[in-house]
Amino acid sequence: MAVVIRMPKMSDTMTEGVIANWLIKVGDKVKSGDILAEVETDKATMELENYEDGVILHLADTKKPLLVDGLIAVVGKVGEDISTFLGGGSGNSPIPKVEPVVSAPVVAVPAVDTSKIKAQIVRMPKMSDTMTEGVIATWLKKVGDKVKSGDIIAEVQTDKATMELENYEDGYLLYIAEAGKPVEIDGIIAIVGEQGVDFQALLQAKTMTASAAPAPSSSASADATPSQTSTSSQDLGSGDSRTKVSPLARRLAKEMGYDLKQIKGSGENGRIVKRDIETFKPETAKPSKATSSQGNVVFGQESFTEVPLSQMRKTIARRLTESKNTAPHFYLTIEIRMDKAIAARNSLNQISPVKISFNDMTIKAVAMAIRKHPNVNSSWQGDKIRYNNHIHIGMAVAVEDGLLVPVIRFTDQKTLSQIAAETKDLGQKAKNKKLQPADWEGNTFSVSNLGMFGIEEFTSIINPPDSCILSVGGIKETVLVENGQMVIGNVMKVTLACDHRSVDGVTGSGFLQTLKEFMEEPVKMLV
Question: Where along the chain do the CATH 4.10.320.10 domains lie?
Fold first, then answer.
């Protein structure tokens, strides 16, 4: 009997995932313990292990978001009929577990026999734990093109990145969804199969099971639907005469003010891609002068550029709006004298195996202050407050198009050198999108530092489910009054944002006072 493999839940916040790459193909014989695929979220790529012996009868499309517990593969015997199960269905397994197929129709609709249609549906993959929809940024193939397994057929924009969509079936591209429009996870974006196949019945069947995007109108043909026409011409132009450029590269070029006609593409068929924009060195243009009989006159033209929101920016906007609207924020700011911290850092870096930053010292001091004020290490749970006994500090890291918060676990138990090494490693992983679930899950308190950008003071929005986030400004040399005398000193301002439902003003103030003591007398953190 056939068994299904479902999308595993790889983090506490994950709702969907994406098959980044299948390591096997339909027809392959597999055994328990084999690695079947690489599954990608918005923060990491992980291996999917098989737990059943048999033959691969079906594989879900890659590069499309799939809900947690959604069907991604079927393992069974050669020739076994699995057409009943290809509409997906829901189950209860939150881990990469193979379980018997259970047929449970979602809606009572007339059955459509698709078992003899020699074509495969490509669906929008789930590429991050927060992604709910994706956008076909551009199609690299058009309807009628012959494609092979391994071909890159499109670029998909998610809430975290623009990624390539890889094909895993040999055949002809029979149908493609319209580029530039949001498609829900698991929605149909393409069909690959034999030439002349009536894929309309396949679209109808998938629509009736409520597992796909709406089917095109019956008047649309396999060779030229309105969406297909606009998609194929978007990037290539009439007769391939226009400059071929990926949407991401086009956006970057606009931001940098580059003329695409001056850039040589290194992609397929001379297509301009991201790396071409990053390595392009424009020639310096000579400024033009405008004069009139009345003297020098400056002429200009008002203009603007509107850029659609990336999937990452959409998610940031939604989550932070929810935090700001639901959690009653209040802010507490304190000034810290940093002269001894500066001296301590210079001494520590003479013996530390890794360079210690002021941010590392702040994170350590935060963890030590939490020990004495555990109520700030909490989260609002609706009808209860959770007080965490462990201290996991989330460290805000800026990445392209947004922000990630990797976690330093058991921060209070680590030395400054250990924290320094970990912050550097996590920061690099975040920027390279190589974080694993254990790297970003479980923060109990967050720290955001903009001091390196010259920001003296700012406030942050609380990072759910934390009750607090500390905003750290830069160190500023200034004139201070000490024992009635003016002296030169170094100060740093920090602002604590608190969720008033779980943390009161007195609690937050006490925490900041203790933090100030640790930073002004760093030796206290070492005993």
Answer: 247-279
Q: pLDDT tens-digit profile of 385-405?
A: 999 999 999 999 988 778 889
The residues of the chain that CATH labels 3.30.559.10 are 327-526
DSSP per residue, 298-318: ----------PPPHHHHHHHH
- Give the integer Cα–Cα distance in Å for 236 and 243: 7
Full 3-state SS string of 331-398: EEEEEEECHHHHHHHHHHCCCCCCCCCHHHHHHHHHHHHHHHCHHHCEEECCCCEEECCCCCEEECEE
Q: For residue range 82-117, what is the model confidence (pLDDT) as tens digits?
A: 877 775 443 333 333 334 333 334 344 455 566 678
In words, the CATH class of domain 247-279 is few secondary structures
State how far the Cα of 98 lies from the Cα of 519, in Å rounded to an integer: 52
CATH number assigned to the domain covering 327-526 = 3.30.559.10
- pLDDT tens for 26-47 read 989 988 778 888 887 655 667 7
Q: How far is CA 476 from the centre of its chain?
A: 35
Q: What is the pLDDT of residue 445?
A: 97
Rounded to two decimals, the pTM is 0.50
Helix axis angle, 358-372 to 339-348, nearest 10°:
110
Q: Is 327 within 8 Å of 499 (Cβ atoms)? A: yes
Residues assigned a catalytic role: 500, 504
Task: Select the more confidently predicted residue: 360 or 221.
Answer: 360
Integer Cα distance of 193 and 116 in angstroms: 12
Element counts in the chain: helices (H) and strands (E): 10, 29
